[in-house]
Design goal:
This protein is of the alpha/beta class. Strands 14-15-16-11-10-17-18 form a seven-stranded mixed β-sheet, sandwiched between helices. Strand 10, helix 11 and strand 11 form a beta-alpha-beta unit. Helix 5 runs antiparallel to helix 6, helix 6 runs parallel beside helix 7 and helix 11 crosses helix 12.
Length: about 575
């Protein structure tokens, strides 16, 4: 098939290739809504498109329709979105996906990538502000985060996956001539090599950050010749439904079977995740979500790429400017009410306090100053709305309440949570963070992800114990990110070694306006796959290379030339 679409997007793709090689700062898209061309009008069109979806059926002409389903409720308005999506028979979806693969797989890799780059382009140019609203009113993200983290940056991650898919596929030479002597005879063989897709991929997306992992996962599978069945969280369907709609439209316009991308929906009361994973035609499973189900996926899927949950750690050994460190830490612990897989949760510090140029600051005072810094974020409603945003699920509020009660019994509550009044949405589901001070004897309280704005200050025997506790908790229980403040280069070196062995990405001594857990496409590896928080990394060669295998044929070279 023609590479016309690849040629259309060649400049952007080659620029992404350069960024992946050099790991420097680059984005294919404006990273702030105001930087988009004709921003005000584009935002108005996106809002109108979102509102036009509400209270209606979301028509997707895919096989096996059984009826209509939908249960999304806006965390900002408290009102149901009222959108009904087509629920499909999963046998029909798998059969249709399987039928779509052969012709797609025979299409050249660059032609496939061109189609997928076109989908990326249309998602941004035609839908980014509609997606912004969809993410806000399903996940609860702020407007800026919904645009950047779930729009522009998630699309960057999608392109990044295509870069690595191209690299993996380009490593497979299509043909070779092989010669050697066997005794007095000279044997010449013509060999051909094919990259053969695994089959049908099932892509689970999570409630709070649906597009961030799903789009690169979809791209990794599609670029290597597979089909994808998208399984959204029932509380956050709309962002993925818009994506599926765009993928199907682009595939069809390019002459491909739209059933390369379909959507399988369920309800909270009647989940179908295990049926999808256990289906005999499910060759690949991408999963983002809870540790319990993620572990089950890893044990039962034919091939899985997972990102689950972990308790992300902070070690405070010493600091050049303790207040600056605590402000940065507080802002990051508040960001999107800590409903991010990279949010710091546990802060480990020596019982004797944190060393600073002005002397050692006791553990109790560090805890109190961190609590004050966190509290300051929620004091002004406009700032709170930008940073804390909204709580996606009522279950998170229930968890905050339980952890507050447990924290009071097994430690000390440094900061009690409260609802803050959102200046735009008075019915928004909100909460400022809970902060509990405890010690390693209460490890079961904090040695798992407590999803939402919940943090723990853990008093350890000394700095070495704090680092050992933190790294050990990551290795045993999982952690994606880690953060360190230290003025001691030998301690920093020990932390780099320890966290590398534990498999968490480490940030050292960062202060200032950048969120500590900001992950840059083309530069930062997201997850390592080295601890229980996930078995894969977005994005690297390993994320795509296993999605196809290599089959070969060989024949005498003379016979091959004769044909």
């Amino acid at each position: 098939m023609s590479d016309a679409l690849f040629d259309k997007h060649r400049a952007r793709f080659e620029r992404a290739q350069q960024a992946c090689r050099e790991r420097h700062a680059w984005s294919a898209f404006p990273e702030l809504p105001s930087q988009v061309a004709d921003a005000e009008a584009a935002q108005a069109r996106g809002l109108a498109a979102f509102r036009a979806r509400l209270g209606r059926r979301f028509e997707i002409d895919q096989p096996g329709s059984l009826g209509w389903i939908g249960e999304e409720v806006s965390p900002y308005t408290g009102e149901p979105l009222g959108i009904a999506y087509p629920q499909a028979d999963i046998e029909a979806l798998f059969d249709a996906a399987e039928r779509a693969i052969p012709r797609w797989a025979e299409t050249g890799a660059r032609a496939r990538i061109g189609v997928l780059m076109e989908a990326v382009d249309q998602l941004f140019t035609g839908h980014v502000f509609e997606l912004q609203q969809a993410v806000m009113h399903s996940a609860g993200q702020s407007a800026n985060m919904a645009y950047a983290g779930s729009g522009a940056n998630a699309l960057d991650r999608a392109i990044e996956a295509l870069v690595y898919a191209d690299q993996a596929l380009a490593a497979v030479t299509p043909a070779a001539r092989w010669e050697r002597s066997f005794g007095s005879s000279r044997i010449a063989l013509a060999k051909t090599y094919r990259a053969v897709p695994r089959g049908v991929a099932v892509c689970f997306s999570c409630a709070t950050f649906a597009t961030w992992n799903a789009w690169p996962s979809m791209m990794a599978s599609l670029a290597t010749g597979n089909a994808v069945i998208v399984k959204p969280h029932p509380g956050s369907v709309l962002p993925m439904a818009i994506g599926v709609e765009v993928f199907r439209r682009v595939l069809g316009a390019a002459g491909h079977d739209p059933n390369l991308v379909t959507m399988a929906l369920d309800s909270s009361a009647e989940p179908l995740g295990k049926r999808l994973v256990n289906h005999p035609k499910a060759a690949i499973v991408d999963f983002t979500g809870s540790a319990a189900f993620g572990s089950w996926v890893e044990q039962n899927a034919a091939l899985s790429y997972t990102e689950t949950s972990g308790c992300n750690t902070v070690v405070l050994e010493s600091a050049e400017d303790l207040d600056a460190a605590l402000r940065s830490l507080a802002t990051t612990m508040c960001l999107f009410s800590a409903q991010m897989c990279t949010s710091p949760q546990n802060v480990y510090l020596p019982r004797g306090g944190v060393a600073t140029p002005g002397g050692r600051v006791g553990a109790d005072e560090v805890g109190a100053r961190l609590a004050a810094a966190i509290s300051a974020v929620g004091q002004e409603p406009r700032r709170a709305a930008m940073i804390l945003a909204a709580i996606q699920s009522p279950a998170t509020l229930d968890l905050i309440g339980r952890m507050q009660d447990e924290g009071a019994l097994r430690g000390r509550v440094l900061l009690a949570p409260r609802a803050y009044g959102h200046p735009q949405f008075p019915k928004a589901r909100t909460s400022t963070p809970l902060l509990v001070q405890t010690d390693p004897r209460q490890g079961d309280l904090y040695r798992e992800e407590r999803f939402g704005p919940i943090g723990f200050v853990v008093e350890c025997a000394d700095a070495g114990d704090a680092l050992a506790q933190a790294c050990g908790d990551v290795a045993r229980h999982g952690g994606l990110t880690a953060f360190l403040y230290s003025r001691d280069e030998s301690f920093i070196a020990a932390a780099e070694r320890g966290y590398a062995r534990a498999g968490a990405q480490l940030t050292i001594n960062l202060t200032g306006p950048m969120p500590l857990n900001f992950a840059a496409a083309y530069s930062d590896y997201h997850v390592t796959g080295l601890n229980p928080a996930g078995n894969a990394s977005l994005t690297d060669l390993a994320f795509v290379a296993g999605r196809f295998r290599i089959a070969q044929s060989r024949r005498p070279a003379a016979a091959a030339r004769a044909n």
